[in-house]
Design brief:
The chain is α/β, with parallel strands linked by helices. It folds into two domains: 150 residues, Glutaredoxin; 183 residues. It is built from 16 helices and eleven strands. Strands 9-8-7-10-11 form a five-stranded mixed β-sheet, sandwiched between helices. Strand 3, helix 3 and strand 4 form a beta-alpha-beta unit. About 3% of the residues have low confidence.
């Protein structure tokens, strides 16, 4: 596993520990040793585990940055915290190995988890995304395992939110009318919209006599503003929030990982319905306005941008009579579709270091090719 940045390394190592715990594999790591440093005078891999595992940290650092005592202490701290093997020191990496990892394994600053079989054959070019999505169900982290997991998946609130917060699991498995509670996940940074949306949603839920719970999931790459909004939501009792900032980060990392995982398997919004849903949520987050998804238990979800869902909620009297026939979520979805107009503007924002970004991306709303822009952004809270 190569990594240049240090962000989230602790979370990654913890997730890997959950994935391969109890595997009982006794690796020789000979393939890794040959790749990293082919000479016979190499120092042994540092073994940070009490049980031998098939995970080796290959720290690829920026050679243009001076390696001083501060960098050394940071490196040793990270190395001491991991339960796996690691290269003794970044300077021992053969330049040819670094070139191979960058050019063949396509490492580009983001953490990368390449899976090798006992013969040194690559069986997954990057399994880190499936680890984020499925946790210990991802083991043994092969491409075939990843395909099988996707084949058994449907787009539900359970897949979207997983076990990010225990409250969501409780709502999913509390049987009310045999289908569980209605769950609404919403995000954005517009506090005025959040107040109007949560208050209006609560009024509509009471009028429709449905048990509804709401959870704020913030925004991708959350900043201080998201934490401030979460505090306001909690103080004003507008809805539930994710209590730890890391959980907001994890929600969006999982969603982006779904996109990357699907891309690795050649999926698009044209041939994969889950990919279409993922793209839609990511495009919602690309704007500064709000958005929401609503589901009953594990059934299909309704989704909409902030202005659209507020309009539908305001027009509740026009579609409430259909609830008895098609259900609350479907009645809400039908109203959204009636409100849609050809005019819309969707954004899909990826960092320049993101992998697997295709040359063309199709809009999840209208299926038209999106224009590509380069954006520089500085946000000060």
């Amino acid at each position: 596993m190569g990594c240049q940045g240090r962000d989230s390394l602790g979370s990654i190592f913890h997730e890997l520990q959950q994935v391969v715990a109890g595997s009982g594999i006794e690796p020789t790591c000979q393939t890794c040793k040959s790749l990293i440093y082919a000479k016979d005078d190499q120092l042994p891999l540092v073994d940070g585990s009490t049980k031998r595992r098939e995970v080796v940290w290959v720290p690829i650092v920026d050679l243009t940055t001076p390696w001083d005592e501060v960098e050394q202490r940071k490196f040793k701290s990270i190395q001491a915290s991991m339960p796996w093997f690691s290269v003794h020191h970044p300077s021992l990496l053969d330049p040819t190995a670094i070139k191979y990892i960058k050019e063949v394994w396509l490492f580009n600053k983001k953490p990368l988890l390449v899976v090798l079989d006992p013969h040194g054959k690559v069986v997954n070019p990057n399994a880190i995304h499936m680890c984020w999505i499925w946790g210990n169900m991802a083991f043994p982290c092969t491409t075939l395992t990843e395909e099988a997991l996707w084949e058994g998946s449907t787009w539900t609130i359970e897949l979207l939110a997983d076990s990010i917060d225990q409250s969501i699991l409780n709502w999913l498995y509390i049987l009310i009318d045999k289908d569980g509670k209605y769950i609404c996940l919403y995000g954005g940074e517009n506090l005025d919209w959040i107040r109007r949306f949560t208050n209006r949603t609560r009024v509509v839920a009471e009028a429709a006599c449905i048990p509804l719970e709401m959870m704020y999931v913030g925004k991708n790459n959350p900043r201080k503003k998201v934490w401030k909004i979460s505090s306001v939501i909690l103080a004003e009792k507008l809805s539930h929030i994710l209590p730890d900032p890391t959980l907001i980060w994890f929600f969006w990392v999982r969603l982006e990982s779904m996109w990357h995982s699907k891309m690795q398997h050649g999926k698009t919004i044209d041939n994969d319905p889950i990919m279409n849903e993922i793209m839609t949520i990511l495009s919602f987050d690309g704007s500064d306005e709000g958005w929401a998804v609503i589901s009953q238990g594990k059934s299909e979800m309704d989704k909409a941008k902030g202005d659209t869902i507020l309009k539908s909620l305001a027009l509740f009297d026009q579609w409430k009579d259909r609830i008895g026939e098609v259900g609350f979520v479907n009645a809400l979805t039908d109203n959204h579709n009636e409100l849609l107009t050809p005019q819309h503007c969707d954004h899909l924002i990826f960092p320049c270091t993101a992998e697997n970004i295709p040359e063309t991306i199709v809009c999840a709303t209208c299926k038209t090719h999106m224009e590509k822009f380069i954006m520089y952004r500085y946000c000060r809270d």
